[in-house]
Design a protein that fits this description.
The complex is a heterodimer of chains A (752) and B (697).
Chain A (H helix, E strand, L loop, with lengths): L6 H26 L26 E6 L3 E6 L4 E6 L4 E4 L12 H7 L3 E7 L5 E5 H6 L4 E6 L2 E8 L4 E9 L3 E7 L4 E2 L4 E8 L6 E2 L4 E5 L5 E4 L6 E5 L23 E6 L2 E9 L4 E6 L7 E9 L3 E7 L5 E7 L8 E8 L5 H14 L12 E6 L1 E8 L2 E8 L3 H13 L5 E6 L22 H15 L3 E4 L4 E2 L8 H4 L13 E2 L6 E2 L6 E2 L5 H8 L10 E3 L18 H18 L1 E5 L11 E3 L13 E2 L2 H6 L4 E6 L6 H11 L2 E6 L20 H22 L4 E6 L4 E6 L4 E5 L5 E3 L2 E3 L4 E4 L6
Parallel strand pairs in A: 24-27, 24-38, 27-28, 28-33, 33-34, 34-35, 35-37, 37-38
Antiparallel strand pairs in A: 1-2, 2-3, 3-4, 5-6, 5-12, 7-8, 8-9, 9-10, 9-11, 10-23, 12-20, 13-20, 14-15, 14-17, 15-36, 16-19, 17-18, 18-23, 19-20, 21-22, 25-26, 29-32, 30-31, 39-40, 40-41, 41-44, 42-43
Helix pairs in contact in A: 5-6
Chain B lengths: L1 H19 L15 E3 L5 E3 L4 E8 L14 E4 L5 E5 L4 E5 L5 E5 L2 E2 L2 E2 L5 E6 L4 E5 L4 E5 L5 E5 L15 E6 L5 E5 L6 E4 L5 E5 L8 H12 L2 H5 L9 E6 L5 E5 L9 E4 L23 E3 L4 E3 L3 E6 L5 E5 L4 E5 L5 E5 L12 E7 L2 E6 L4 E7 L1 H14 L3 H14 L4 H13 L3 H10 L3 H18 L1 H24 L14 H7 L1 H11 L4 H21 L14 H25 L6 H11 L1 H14 L7 H27 L3 H45 L1
Antiparallel strand pairs in B: 1-2, 3-29, 4-5, 5-6, 6-7, 8-9, 10-11, 11-12, 12-13, 14-15, 15-16, 16-17, 18-19, 19-20, 21-22, 23-24, 24-25, 25-26, 27-28, 28-29
Helix pairs in contact in B: 1-17, 4-5, 5-6, 6-7, 6-8, 7-8, 10-11, 11-16, 12-13, 12-14, 12-15, 13-14, 13-17, 14-16, 15-16, 16-17
The chains are: A alpha+beta (752), B alpha+beta (697).
Chain lengths: 752, 697
Amino acid sequence: MKKQIPWSTILTTAIPLLIVSALIALLIVISSGSDITDTDPQVITPIEFTPSTNLADEDVLVAENDKFALWANLATTKITLYQKDNDTYFTSVPETLEEEDIKNSAKFQLSSLLTFRYSDRDSNAYNNQNCFAGSVRKGDYRAQQIENGVRFDFYFDNEGFLIPLEITLTQTGIKATVPLKDIRERSNRILLTGVTVLPNFGAARADTEGYMLLPDGSGMLADFSTRNFSYSQRIYGKDYAVISSTSSGSSQIARMPIYGIKRGNGAFLSVISSGAARAYVEANAPTTKSPYATVAARFVYREVMTVEVSQKTFESTQVNVFESSPCSLDAFTVEYLLCEEASYISMADSYRQYLQEYGMESLTEPRDALYVDLIGGVECQQSVLGIPVNRVLPVTDYAAATQILRQLRQAGVDNLQVSYQYWQQGGAEGKLTTTLDAEAALGGKRGLNQFLQYCQQEGIPLYLALNLTDMRRSQPGFLKTYAAAQSVRSEPVIAYDYYLSTFQQKTGGLPLYLLSPAIIPDAVEKVLPNLDNWSVAGYNVGTLGNKIYSDMGSRSIDRGAAEAIITTALSKLAGQSKLQLSAANAYAFPYADTITDVPLYTSGYLIETCQVPFYSMVMHGMAYMSSGDINGYLDSEHALLRILEAGVGLKYAFGWGNVAELSDTAISEYGYIQADRWLDHAAQQHQALREFLSAVSDRTMTAHILISKDVRYSEFDNGMGVYVNYSGQDVSYGDIVIPAGGYVLQLSKEGV
Amino acid sequence: MRKRLWCGMLAALLCIGMLWGVITPATAAENSSDSYTYDAEGNSQATPAPYQLKTVVWGAEAFGGVALKNPQDFFVDDDHNIYILDGENNRIVMLDRDYRFVKAITLSYNGEMVDISEASGIFVNRKHLYVADKKQAAVFVTDHQGNVELTIDAPPADKVEQGFVYAPSRVVVGTDDVIYIISANTYNGALQYDASGTFLGFFGSDSVLPTLTVRLNQIWRKILSDEAAAGLQRSVPISFAQFDIDSKNFLYTISSGTKTESGQVRRVNPSSVNVLLNENGEVATYGDLETWFNSQTNLDVVTNFIDVTIDDLGFFTLLDATRSRLFQYDSSTNLLYAFGVKGTQQGTFDKPVAVENQGDCILVLDAGLGGIHVLQPTVFGQGVRTAITLYNDGRYEDAAEYWERILSQDAYYALANIGMGKVHERTGNYALAMQYYRAGSDRDGYSSAFLAQREAFTRDNFLLILIGVIIMLSLVVVYTLYCDRHPINHYEIRISRKQMPLWCLRHPFRGFQEMRQENLHSLGATGIILAVWFLVSVLSTQLTAFHFNPTADEDLNIFVILAKTVGIYALFVLCNWAVATLADGRGKLSEIAAYAAYALLPYIVTQVALMVLSNIFSLEEAAFYNVIQTVGFMCTAAYLLIALREVHDYSLKTTLLTLVGTFLGMYFVLLIITIVYSMFAQLIGFLVMLYSELRLR
C-alpha cells in the first residue's frame, strides 16, 4: 500500500526548521553588521550659555532673617551661613583650606559647591568632576542673586553639562536645590548620572571636636578623627529592580533621609526633602590627601546598571545600561536645619520639628502594652491520607491565637497590642490581601470572627497584616508576571532568596514577584472598601512602609515617583484605619500610629565610632514604637538593653503549632516563635519594665549621655531615665552602680 | 499559522527571560545572621549567630605605634597572651590577654638582628618562641627576648629522599618538646625534631589508600602515553597546608588543595593514624557541601581551609580562605555552624589568614585589615558548646536545659533536637522522642525510640495481641480445612477476563499461558494496574515510616513519581516492542503492555506490604524488610520473564536476549532525550542572550 505522508507531519518538521533557519539568518545579519551601538549615532545638542563677568571676589550678604545671615562670594562660589544666636559659621569651603599643603586637585574638590558623576555609554567606568575645577576656575559659570538667596549655573565645557544650584535662606537654615528641569546635557553618549550638593559644607579637620551623624540603621556617629574609611549608603536601601549578581552581606538600612554635623558649638541636620529615594549619604574620613571629614548627599540623576550580555564571540561581557529617562522629580533638595544646641539630641529635635511641620502630630497619652506578633500559617506540602497536597499549615490558627492571648492574660499581661501576620487566605505564600478573606485551614471566617470577638471583649487592639507588595500567585487583576515591577531588561523582578553558603540565588519554590509601584494604587483601591469587613483596631501595612523599588520596564516608575505613589497609598489607608508600620521608612512616618521593629542596631561600618538610637529619638512623642521580635534577636539580653536605651515597647512573636515543621517553608526564619517556650518569659519581662516603658511611650527623649561607649543614659521629658551597661564589668556613675550587661531605671515622677 | 507561532515563540522567550531573571539583594532583617549549618540532606540552614564581635584590635596605636603589615600568623599561649608574627616589620608583637600592647620582639643572633620578613609560622611555649622561615630554610628557636638559641636546619641528606627541599612554613611543638615542622611541598608528612634539633623522622603522612581509582589509574598509566597520563589524577599523598597540636599531642592537620573531599582534616595520633571520625566510625567531609560552579573560570568554587585551631573542649575551628568563613566542628565531626563573612564592616573579615582560640573566644588574624578580630560566643554559641560537652559526658539531662534554650531560638537545630530526643527516650516519652528525632532527621534514634514504643505497646496490649494472633491462626486453620474438604479441580476452572490479573499473580506459568491461548488480556485492567502502581508509589512516599523512608522530608513532585513508574514502564514496553519486532516476537504492542503490567503485580503487592511493615519493624529488623524487598523484586523479574516469553512465544534464551536488548534500547532513548534536552537548553540560553542584547543595545 502506498503511504500518504500527512500534511501535519510535513508541517511539524518544516516549521521548527524554518524557525531555526530564520533565527540563524537573524543572527548572521546582526553579527555581520558592525557593532550595534554604532548604529546609534552621537547626537549633539549645543547648550546655550553666557558666563557672568566681573564678579567681585568678596563675600556679599545675599539673604538675612532674624536667625541667620547668608553670604556668598560670587567669584569663588563660596557660601557662608551665620547662625546669630550662638554665633557660629558654616561654610561650603573649609576655612583653613588655603593653609593646607595638599595637591591642587584636592583643593579644587574641597572648594566646590557641587560635584557630579558621569559615564560614557560605551565604557563601564564612571568619572567624577567637581564644579571648581570644571567650571568656576575657567570662569564658565553664572552667579546671580535670587529671592532669599543665590543661584549658580555651572557650565562644564569638557563634559558638556549645565548644572544649576540654588541656595536659599529659610527659617530653619538653608536649602540647597538642584532644579532638574534646568539641567542640560550636550551629548546623548556622555550622560550625567549623579550630583552631590554642598559636598564640603561643614567639613572639619580630624583635630576638630565633633562628629558626623549618619543614618545607618538606628543611627550612628563618626568622629572627625575617625580612621581612614569612607561611607556610602543608599537611603531606604537598595533598589530591588537593580541587578546585582549575588547576595550582599546582611546590613541595616538607612530609613531616614538625614545626616548631620556637629562641629564645636554649632550643629546642623540635613534632611533630604526631595529625591530622598534617589539619594546616597556619603561620608569621608580625613586622609593625608584630603585632611577633612566630609558628609553630603549624592543624588542619582540617572540610574546605571551593569548587565551581562553576550558578545559576537559568545563570551559574555558587562555593559552599562542607563535608566531610560533621568529622574522624574522637579528637584533634588537638601534642607540644612541649624540646631539650637550642638548635639545629636538637638538634631533629633530639629528633625522632629521638621516632621511636625509636615503634619505629624504629638502623642497625648502613654501606652502600656506588650506588643505581640502572631504568625498565622504558611502553604506547604502536607500528607492527607497519604496523598501529598499543598495547603496551609497552621502555625497559629484563629483558635490558637485566642489561646495565646488568653495565656498572656493569665500570666498578668493586661495590655496587649497584637498584630496578626499571615492570617489571610493562603497564609504566608498567599496573594495580595485585596479581598481580606480568612483562611479555611486556620478556622475560616467564623473562626476569625470568634477570635476578633474575643479581642473586642477583652479590649485587645488587634491589627491584621496587609500585604500589598509581595506576589507569589496571580489573582484577578494582578497577573503576577504582568503586574510585577520590571528590571531594565523588561523582565519581571523576582526577589530571590540566596544560599547562605555560596551567596548564589536559590531557585525553586514559588518565586516572589513585587507588585509594580504603578499598580499599587489599584491594589489599595481594591482593599479600601474591604477594610470594614473585620472589626479590628487597625491594619499592619507590612512591606508597604519599608520596601521601595522602581519599575524600570515600560511603565517606567523611578524611586522618586514610587515614593510619591506609596505615600498616597498610605494616606488613603490611614484615612480609613489606624496603621501599624514595621521598620517604617521616613516617607511613611506621618501615617503611623505605631511603628514596630524600630531599628536598634547598625550595620557596623568601619567609619562608625558610636551607635546611637537616633531613629527612636526622633520618633519619640510622635508615634508609639516597639522593638523587633525579642525572641528573634541574636542576643535577646543585649537587645533588651538597646530597647531600654531607645525607650521602645517590648515585642515578641509567637506561634502555637510545632515550629520545627516550618524548616523548609517560606517563613523558615521564624524558628524562634514556639509560644510555650517564651510566654512566661515575655510576661515576666513585661511586668518588670511596664512602669518605665509605658511612662516614656509618648514622651520625647531629652537627654542621651554617652558615659562611655558601652555605658549610656537616656532621659525623657517626664524625668524618667535609664542607665544601660553593655560592658562586661559593673560600672559606677555617681552613686549609681550599673551592673555588667544590666540596666538601672530612674523612675522619678513627673515634675521632679 | 506562522504569526501564531512567532507569538508563541515570543511568549516562550519572555517566560524564559523571567527564569533568567534578575537578582535582588536580600533585605536584612534586624540583626540577621550569616551563620548556618547543614541539615541531613546537605542543605544549608540558617542558625542564630554563634559568635559576635567583641572587639577589633587594629591600627597603629594598638601595636606600639606601628601598624601591622601583612601579618601571616599568630599564636595564643597558655596564659592567653597573643604573639603576632609581623614579619614585614621584622618583629613579633606581643599583646596581653586584654589585647594591650606589651612589647615588640626582634630576633637577634649574637647581637645581630635576624631578618624574618618572610617568616610564615610562629609557635610559643613557656620556654621558647619558634619562628618558621621558608626563605632562610630555618626554624628559629629563641627565648622570650628574641635571642636565637637554636636554629633547626634541614634534616640530614641520608634521612630524606633525593630532591627534598627544606622550606619550613609552619611549626608546632608538643608538650614533650618535640618539634613538628611543615615543609612546603613535602608529601611525607611533618618533620619531627627533638628539643635539641635532632631530626627524628617524618610523621603523620597522608597515606595513599589503594582505592579502585588509584588501581585503575595505575593500569591506565601503563597503557596511555605520557601526556595523557599526566592528565590523570596523581596518586601522591597530599601535603599539609597547616596544622595545630592539642594538649594530648595529637596533630590536627589540613591537607592542602581546594578539592572538597572527605578527610581533608585529620587528627593524627602518635602512630600516624587518623582518629577524627564520626559516631559511625567514618571520615567526614569538611567545609561547604553546597558548591557553585563559576562559569567564567570553569571551576567549582569550594572551601579552601588554611588554618585550624582546637580548643580545650575538643571543638576545632577551621578557616576557609575562599569565603573568609569559619567552620566549627565537635570532636565527632558534627558541623556546629559556619559563620563569618568577607567584608569591610565590623564583624566581617577582609583577608583572614589565621585563627586561634583564646579561652572561649576565637581570634582571627586579618592581613588585609592588619589586625585581630576578637569573637566571643553568643548565648546560642555558648549553649551549643556547653550542651555538646555535657552530652558527650553522658549527662543528657543536664544537657537538656541547654538544648531547650537552643531550640527556643532555633527550633530546627538538629543536634539540639536529637539531644532532646535522647532525653525523652530515656524518660520513656517515646512519642515525643520520635518527634524530636524526626525534627533532627536522626533515623537511628527515631527507630530506637520507635522500637521502645512498640515494645511498650506490645507489653501493655499483650492479651489483645495474643487473642488477635489466635483468631488469625484459627481462621487459617479453618480455611485450610475448608479447602481440603472442597478440592478444586484446577483444570476445569475457566478464568474470566476480569479475574485474569489475580489469576496470573497466583499462577504465573499457567496464568500467562492461558491468557495467551484464550487471548484474555485486558487493556482496562492494564490501566487499573498502572494507576494502582502510581498511587501506591505516591502513598509509600508518605506512609512509609520515617526510619525506612529516605525521602520523608522532601517535597514530593508528582511528575517525578509518574516518570519513575508509568514513564519507565512505557519506555520499557515501547523498547521491548521495537526489539521484538526485529526478533520475530509475536506480541503486539497492546499485548506487551498488558503482559508487562500484569507482571508488575508482585512488585506492587510487595510495595504495599513494605509500606505496612515499615510501621512495624525498627531498623534493627531491617534485614527482614530488605529480604522482602529483594524477594519482591526478584519475583517481579521472574514474572516479567515468564510474561514476555509467553507473549512473544520465545524460548527462555531469546527472552533473556531481547530483555537485554530492551534495556540497551531504553538506555539509548534516555541518552538521546538528555542530549536533545541539553541542546534545547543551550539554544534557549542563546536566544535569551540574543533577545536581551537586541533590547539593550
